[in-house]
Design brief:
Shape: globular
Structural class: mainly alpha
Strand content: under 5%
Number of helices: 8
Radius of gyration: 16 Å
Largest sheet: 2 strands, antiparallel
Strand order of the largest sheet: 1-2
Distance between the termini: 36 Å
Number of strands: 2
């Protein structure tokens, strides 16, 4: 799902960097020091999950877990995904440095949306939390695929076909991500329910305790 260097117009690349930098700063301010171990674990999980690419026509698919990351980290999810993408870009040249802003928006925005939805609708019952977690996991990939297609369209008519294939190729990934997220949320709700309490801190002063 990573967008490579040189695919997007300069204006989109620069705009994506500016928006991603602002969101990363906001995410960092909303991250409490006590959440750093969980952020590190989820960053590592995102890093590993999205390294396994399966070729699909002119593009490739892989797990990206934005919905699960958002459900577990809340506002810290954007920072986590941005760090994971930066490491992948530097170590394995996945996506490229110039496309880092666009890739961060593509996977980070769905994580924030799904994190908010999970917190809003998860309730207290474990079956409901697993169901909402699964739906959030699937929705995160749907949103990421849609943003990917929109970004590719800005690259010109040559990328229209790639955008359509990118959308279709992620249908099985949506199902897998939903199942993985539901299983993970159900397991955590049973053995470590406190991990399902993402912190949407309302004031910057309370963020760094």
């Amino acid at each position: 799902m990573h967008i490579s260097d040189g695919v997007l117009p300069v204006s989109v690349t620069v705009g994506s960097y500016v928006a991603s930098a602002a969101l990363a700063a906001w995410s960092a301010r909303r991250t409490r020091s006590g959440d750093l171990p969980k952020l590190a674990v989820m960053t590592a999980a995102f890093f590993v999950a999205s390294l396994v690419h399966v070729p699909f026509g002119p593009t490739s698919v892989h797990l990206i877990i934005p919905g699960l990351t958002g459900a577990l980290l809340g506002p810290s999810a954007f920072l986590s995904i941005g760090l994971g993408l930066l490491l992948q870009s530097l170590l394995f040249q996945f996506g490229g440095i110039t496309a880092l802003g666009a890739n961060s928006l593509m996977m980070g925005l769905p994580a924030l949306v799904c994190g908010w939805l999970f917190r809003r609708f998860k309730g207290r019952a474990r079956p409901r939390q697993a169901l909402v977690g699964g739906l959030a996991g699937a929705l995160g990939t749907v949103l990421a695929a849609m943003i990917l297609a929109l970004l590719l369209v800005t690259g010109g008519e040559d990328f229209f076909g790639v955008a359509k294939i990118a959308l279709l190729s992620h249908v099985p990934v949506v199902i897998i991500e939903g199942l993985v997220s539901a299983f993970t949320i159900a397991f955590l709700a049973r053995v470590k329910p406190e991990l399902l309490q993402p912190t949407f801190v309302s004031s910057a002063g309370a963020a760094h305790d």
